[in-house]
Design a protein that fits this description.
The chain has helices at residues 2-10, 16-35, 46-58, 66-85, 112-120, 127-142, 146-150, 179-191, 193-197, 217-231, 239-252, 257-264, 269-272, 274-290; strands at residues 157-158, 162-166, 172-176. It has 295 residues and is mainly alpha-helical. It has a three-stranded antiparallel beta sheet with strand order 1-2-3, with no helix packed on it. A hairpin with a 5-residue loop joins β2 and β3. α2 crosses α4 and α6 (127-142) runs antiparallel to α8.
């Protein structure tokens, strides 16, 4: 297993968080195999993998949801393909095992008015307010994943016009920054970041915590939750909510789905197209409520 984890880290360039998830999934799998008396990967059959998948959904301690089972199975299948490629096994025991069917889950976006209320809740001249407002404006302006935003360095803001984001698999993409986010970032860099930087050791990080260290993903989540509470939003808001809203509002405004795909850093347009279902639902609701012969 360790050889496979080194492989996905070095050769495939997966992020530390993704590799950690693979490690947890495979530890769960190998423990189950050991309980079944199997300690040699070459002794695993397709029936064993199928039984493991069923076990995940029916185990007494905490049955996993279909989405979690699919993720674990993806890790297992990757490991078995690696074992076959390396010649450790003669067959791919997980090749024929299919993941459970997932229900169609539409991403949860908030309205433009709710986004504006969220952003307004971070306005102010205090150091923390300037930092929080710049972070939220950037998340909504670029559709960045929270990990991409907190990993930004000052030099990744290029000529104030675009930011360089490092996505999954180490893939870089350049995303434009709108005027509102640009103004918020400028205010933060001039009036807040120098103050925060003096509180800690030198770091190139764009967004700094109150002690001068790089803002963590958990801190970003707390910043957004606090802003949502101040804004009086009665819906659940997370960093990913702003990413969903970014995509949904772009498509609703007429943006091409392939442009949105590039901005989000999706490897497949099929992943982006789920947002078109959201905009279609919105249009249908508007039609039903507005057209005199729709009801």
């Amino acid at each position: 297993m360790q050889n496979y984890l080194r492989h996905v880290t070095v050769e495939r360039g997966l992020s530390a968080n993704t590799v950690a998830a693979y490690r947890r999934d495979l530890a769960l799998y190998t423990r189950w195999l050991a309980d079944e008396g199997i300690n040699d990967p070459s002794a695993v059959t397709s029936n064993h993998v199928s039984d493991f998948v069923r076990h995940l959904g029916t185990r007494e301690e905490e049955p996993l949801k279909a989405s979690s089972i699919a993720r674990v199975l993806s890790s297992v299948r990757g490991w078995h393909r690696f074992l076959l490629d390396e010649g450790t096994t003669e067959t791919d025991a997980a090749h024929e095992t299919k993941p459970p069917k997932l229900g169609s889950r539409l991403p949860k976006a908030i309205t433009i008015e709710q986004v504006e209320a969220l952003l307004d809740a971070t306005r102010g001249d205090e150091v923390q307010q300037l930092r929080d407002h710049a972070l939220l404006e950037l998340l909504y302006a670029t559709g960045a994943r929270v990990s991409e935003a907190v990993d930004l360095n000052v030099d990744d803001v290029i000529d104030r016009e675009v930011v360089r984001l490092l996505g999954k698999g180490g893939k870089q993409r350049i995303v434009p920054v709108g005027s509102f986010a640009r103004a918020a970032i400028d205010a933060y860099l001039v009036r807040a970041r120098p103050v925060l930087s003096r509180r800690g050791t030198a770091t190139p990080a764009l967004f700094l915590g109150l002690r001068g260290q790089r803002v963590s993903r958990q801190n970003a989540w707390l910043i957004i939750r606090a802003a949502a509470a101040r804004a009086g939003l009665e819906v659940e808001v997370s960093p990913h909510t702003l990413r969903h809203s970014f995509a949904t509002h772009l498509l609703a405004g007429g943006a091409d789905v392939r442009v949105v795909q590039e901005l989000l850093g999706h490897s497949s347009v099929a992943t982006t197209q789920i947002y078109t279902l959201v905009t279609a639902d919105t249009l249908r609701d508007m039609y039903t409520s507005a057209h005199p012969r729709a009801r």
